[in-house]
Amino acid sequence: MFTDEALIHACDPQSIYVRRRQADEWNPDYFVPTIKFGKFSCMVYGGIYLGGRIPLYFYAKGTKVNSVIYCNTLGETTIPIC
Q1: pLDDT tens-digit map of 59-82
Q2: Using an 8 Å Cβ cutoff, are 77 and 55 in contact?
Q3: What is the distance of C-alpha 22 from the center of its chain?
C-alpha cells in the first residue's frame, strides 16, 4: 500500500513579470491574465494498494494536519482496507 498527501493550490498566486519596452506598455500581446478572487487551497489524502485505491480524503478548510489528525485519517481511510 502506498499513501500520500498533498496541498493543492488553485490559482496559485505566483507573480509573473513581463519585460517590455515602454512603447509596448498597452500592447495586449504583453498582458498576463490574473485572478483577483476565488483563490483557494486544500489538503488531500489518498492511496493505492494491490486491490484498488483509497478514495480521496479532503481535509476541512483551515485544518492543520498534525499527528492526531493524521492518525484519525488513517483510521477512517486506510486501516479498514487492510
Answers
A1: 988 888 899 999 999 888 888 876
A2: yes
A3: 37
